[in-house]
Design goal:
Layout (H helix, E strand, L loop, with lengths): L3 E7 L3 E7 L3 H7 L5 E6 L5 E7 L4 E7 L2 E6 L6 E6 L2 E6 L6 H10 L3 H7 L1 E4 L1
Antiparallel strand pairs: 1-2, 1-3, 3-4, 4-5, 5-6, 6-9, 7-8
């Protein structure tokens, strides 16, 4: 597998698998919309893309040059508490994405430079 995606699903029990990025659309369609999904592409010390998909939203985080950045779609920096997987975290409202967007960005992430240039990113 060239571009390996780690897939974590909470529905309600935890499941873990690794797939090729090209298999992601089919695997994603097979997961119930009520599930909480974590997707990680190229998990290394200084390069990865992390996507969370929840029933109402998604998030995208990129590790670049040992710094984490969130994909931002609005300037709303107010934080809100969200449930991700099996825990609560605070997250900037402007970095909460439409549910399908996270997977779409991950599918584009084979070319990290293009994804970096295409979207707005804010340091965590």
């Amino acid at each position: 597998m060239a571009d390996v995606v780690t897939v974590e699903v909470w529905n309600p029990s935890y499941q873990h698998s690794e797939i090729d990025l090209s298999a992601l659309p089919e695997v994603y369609r097979s997961i119930p919309e009520s599930a909480s999904i974590g997707l990680t592409l190229a998990d290394t010390e200084d390069d990865c893309v992390i996507v969370t998909v929840e029933p109402e939203f998604s998030t995208v985080t990129m590790l670049r040059d040992r710094t984490f950045y969130n994909l931002q779609i609005s300037d709303d920096s107010d934080e809100t508490v969200i449930l991700v997987g099996d825990g609560e975290i605070t997250w900037p409202k402007g970095c909460l994405l439409p549910r399908p967007m996270g997977v779409r960005v991950l599918l584009e992430a084979e070319d990290r430079e293009a994804v970096w240039a295409r979207y707005t990113w804010v340091e965590q």
